[in-house]
Amino acid sequence: MFYSHMNDTPVGHLLIAGDDNGLRHVSFAKTHFSSREIAPDESWELNERRLKEPLRQLKAYFAGKLKAFDLPLAADGTDFQKRVWDALCQIPYGKTASYGEIAQAVGNPAASRAVGLANGQNPLAIIVPCHRVIGKNGKLVGYGGGVEHKQTLLKLEGVNG
After folding, report:
1. Cys bridge to 13: 29, 42, 97, 135, which one at CB 3.0-4.6 A?
2. Cα gap 40→31, rounded to integer Å
3. Mean of the pLDDT values across residues 43-67?
4. Residue 34: its pLDDT value, please?
5. In terms of Cα–Cα distance, which of 28, 10, 7, 1 is closest to 120?
6. Residue 161's pLDDT band (boundaries 50, 70, 90)?
7. 48-54 long-range Cβ contacts below 8 angstroms, 24+ apart
């Protein structure tokens, strides 16, 4: 596994990791749930060159020049989580969807809470746009990076909320 860091983003420090199969992690250095720094595993190799394309695309996204990521993704998760993450990738740039709408999209309309849990386990923040999921009342609810980062990302995409 290779990793690198992005320090100068509108949402703070990011840890990016992947391997020959694709991108596996884009994580906030500090999460909403913990004040401790997220650190790479000791077995990972610092190698910005191997993550050049994800870093380039993230920089373009933050500059407002990229609206859709085109990267091989290799996140680990259950089948249900992967279906949810695939559905998240279908939410267009600058748009939002509710947990209920994502539950509908994955074929289980009663699974809003399970969608919320899968959303919270998304290992590819920003790339798999869990920040575009909002409460059914239109409120910005829950986000691993903190609601303030969710708001920053949505504002970057032109969503007022």
Report:
1. 29
2. 14
3. 96
4. 46
5. 28
6. low
7. 48/4, 50/2, 50/18, 51/2, 51/3, 51/4, 51/16, 51/17, 51/18, 51/23, 54/16, 54/18, 54/23, 54/26, 54/127
**Global pTM value:** 0.90
With tokens 């919320």, the residue in question is 116
Q: Could you tell me the two tokens for 97?
A: 């969807």
Q: Looking at the DSSP assignment, which residues form a beta bridge with residue 23?
A: 18, 73
Q: What are the φ and ψ backbone dihedral angles of 153, each rounded to 5 degrees?
A: -65, -45
CB 106 within 8 A of CB 117: no
Out of 130, 133, 134, 153, the active site residue is 130
- Active-site residue flag, 89: no
Please write the tens of the pLDDT for every residue from 103-160. 999 999 999 999 999 998 999 999 999 999 988 877 777 777 778 888 999 999 999 7
Q: Are 115 and 106 in contact (CB under 8 A)?
A: yes
- Tokens coding 65: 């020049």
